Amino acid sequence: MKDFFNAIQDLFETVLLAPFDALRVLEVENWFGANIMSWIFMSIGLVAFVYWMLQLKSFSDNNEEDKSISSHSYL
Question: Are 75 and 69 within 8 A, CB to CB?
Fold first, then answer.
């Protein structure tokens, strides 16, 4: 049973987490390159936020939103 858990440990340390080790080594040389995934996710989030705000503005400009006080039952 000990060999089974050691095999799982070896799999994670040498295979599955190898990209993170490469990023750790890259961080010493190039900080922006090491954080490329963070930059990509932040840019995707920014694009989605701008798209969502433009959609809200278009619905607001067309008066499609129900702004009456009783629009929700809990109000």
Answer: yes
